[in-house]
Amino acid sequence: MLIAISDPDDPRIEAYRALRERDLLGRQHRFIAEGEVVLRVLLRQQPRFEAESLLLGEGRVESLDDALHLLPPEVPVYVANRQVMDAIVGFPIHRGILAVAKRPALPPVDVLLDSLPETALVVGMAGLANHDNVGGIFRNAAAFGANAVLLDRETCDPLYRKAIRVSVGGALVVPFTRAPSADALVQALEEASFEVIALSPSGAETLSRVQPSRRTALLLGAEGPGLPPGLLARTRTVSIPMSGGFDSLNVATTSGIALHHLTQGQ
Amino acid sequence: MLIAISDPDDPRIEAYRALRERDLLGRQHRFIAEGEVVLRVLLRQQPRFEAESLLLGEGRVESLDDALHLLPPEVPVYVANRQVMDAIVGFPIHRGILAVAKRPALPPVDVLLDSLPETALVVGMAGLANHDNVGGIFRNAAAFGANAVLLDRETCDPLYRKAIRVSVGGALVVPFTRAPSADALVQALEEASFEVIALSPSGAETLSRVQPSRRTALLLGAEGPGLPPGLLARTRTVSIPMSGGFDSLNVATTSGIALHHLTQGQ
């Protein structure tokens, strides 16, 4: 349902107003998807992530024509020219493609884990407060077909606009949920018969020698502080050997290396 | 040599003025190092990357005390309070740590390759125009002990402020130089007896089955366009298999996965 918008103050596009300021406040019940790649993933994920509306630049409708049919016909697609669109969101929105979607309720951790196949690979994140890293890890989890992602309470929101963008939509592909704490996250994995592999520079084993179990979970902590000692004590700890004097990998890159290693034999 | 600066217009700190605007112009003979991690790498790399001066926030001198002795005593270390420092650089510089260093002349590609040991691993980049990706690849090249990095003319500057920062100093660790073109880059590698492995989603072999040669070069192209067909035709092409429908890895992550695989047997 295409609807032309010519007034930036039109109440129908309220959800797109002052985008950055609202990013900072956080959105409890909705999230924003931005750019063509992410929008196409969102459209393929209907109705899991229910789109409420789209806001497109005038030139964008045609190039998305092949994907817009995935949208239920009652969902409004607002169309505005560049100037009106910039005035609505509050900054130059070069990509000219935005959508607002409903944030689904997150299932309890044990329910999500119980829904996974017998052979499964899960990624766990503890204390990851950087949206680029969380987005990058979701991109890798999607690329290597991880079955689910678990987050502790300190890990930031994968449905934050920038995290979705960095994940190139991976945050909309891999099922995820949140545990009340990193300890609860590991406990739920153990109870669901996952072997938890914690990546740490002080890990006891070398990644390249690790064979995945039937159910394997990869646990990642923040660059710098890393995973808390209590978690390392109860898990199988694994390191990636590096060249002398430069012991530093980005945590998203680390997840890609580990996921590649754990899936390459399959 | 500590020198207090109280006037943002002091001519001695000219090189730090309007940092962002000068970033955009590019610096022909100098580069800027920023933040504690990068500065510490720079200080360890004296005299290869000759520091001309430092500009530190007042609180920073003490925390760097153990590293500043690596600096030749005649190099000025300017010290300013937060307000003066922000006024000099033109924006709030939270890290409070800057240095200006001389950009060394780049050796011809064949000279650099001839200087490498008999067993060597080189990373080649063709058409990589994103500073985050170039920085991320240098970080991985340093982490996995690559012997050198080669860039074609289209690949962006690894000594750009942001690229060095993303590399966490790796751009100052791994020797690099530029070839006149991607073809010349590959030709120089072939003449120096390197087997060139080109990573491409259309690669004929699977990465996990590749055994490194005595001299191996890993060739990376930009996300999206990838490597030109002419280069793929003359190299050994390798892909990283991914999960159906989500065939997308960041190029820096790709470099980490490939470097890990190629070095893990050593």
Strand order of the largest sheet of chain A: 8-7-6-11-9-12-10
CATH architecture level-2 label of the largest domain in chain A:
3-Layer(aba) Sandwich
Chain pair with largest interface = A-B, 32 and 32 residues
Instruction: State the domain count of chain A.
Output: 2
The CATH topology label of the largest domain in chain A is Alpha/beta knot
Protein structure class of chain A: alpha/beta
Q: What is the top-level CATH class of the largest domain in chain A?
A: Alpha Beta
From the spread of the alpha carbons, the general shape of chain A counts as: elongated
- What fraction of residues of chain A sit in β-strands? 15-25%
Secondary structure tally, helices of chain A = 11
Helical fraction of chain A equals 25-40%
CATH superfamily of the largest domain in chain A: SPOUT methyltransferase, trefoil knot domain
Give the N-to-C terminal Cα separation of chain A.
44 Å
| Average of the residue pLDDT scores of chain A | 94
Question: Which properties best describe this structure?
Answer:
homodimer, 266 residues, alpha/beta, 60s Ribosomal Protein L30, Chain: A, Alpha/beta knot, seven-stranded parallel beta sheet, five-stranded mixed beta sheet, elongated
Set out the fold topology.
The structure is a homodimer of 266-residue chains.
Chain A: E1 2-4, H1 19-25, E2 30-34, H2 36-44, E3 51-57, H3 60-63, H4 65-68, E4 77-80, H5 82-89, E5 97-102, H6 109-114, E6 120-126, H7 131-143, E7 148-151, H8 161-166, E8 176-178, H9 182-191, E9 195-199, E10 205-206, E11 215-221, H10 229-233, E12 236-239, H11 251-263
Parallel strand pairs in A: 1-4, 3-4, 6-7, 6-11, 7-8, 9-11, 9-12, 10-12
Antiparallel strand pairs in A: 2-5, 3-5
